[in-house]
Amino acid sequence: FDTSGLPGGAQVVAATLRTGMDTEFGSPFTEFGNMVVDHVLLGAGLDNADFASAALTTVIGALATDGIQEAKTMDVTSAVQADRDAARATSDFRIYFVGAPDGEADQDFVWLTNTGTPLTVAVEPELLITYTVP
After folding, report:
1. Res. 55: pLDDT tops 80
2. What is the dihedral of CA 49, 111, 30, 59, to 10 degrees?
3. Quick check: 71 pLDDT over 90?
4. pTM of the model
5. Are 98 and 109 in contact (CB under 8 A)?
6. Residue 93 parent element (H or E)
7. Residue 116 pLDDT > 50, yes or no?
8. Which of the two ends of the chain, N or C, has the fewest CB atoms closer than 10 A to its terminal CB?
9. What's the whole-number mean pLDDT along residues 38-50?
10. In whole angstroms, what is the distance from residue 84 CA to residue 62 CA?
11. Neighbouring C-beta atoms of residue 127, cutoff 10 Å
12. CA 82 to chain centre
């Protein structure tokens, strides 16, 4: 998320990561546990190496603990303020299931929506920031 538009000296009061969870396939929460979030630094763009890159902070919280189709939110205030303090122009997060693949031939996953497609939960990923300026 590009945060370069925040005014200089802005202090983050609250920051919430929000995305829609759409269709659940199989039983990913039973098989793999919670869907958690790492605070990461992705660099100039998203690529395959970013999934395995070292996290700035691992498991800053759980974004989802069930497959209910709805908007999922998580407080990321400390991560966004840390990015501001380090003069980073983005706040980046990696979302994944905490458990490892189980080796079964079945499919266990969820769709996180980015434009309301393919099914019903029309919540684009967003970072909602409340801040104060001196």
Report:
1. yes
2. 40
3. no
4. 0.86
5. no
6. strand 92-97
7. no
8. C
9. 85
10. 23
11. 19
12. 16
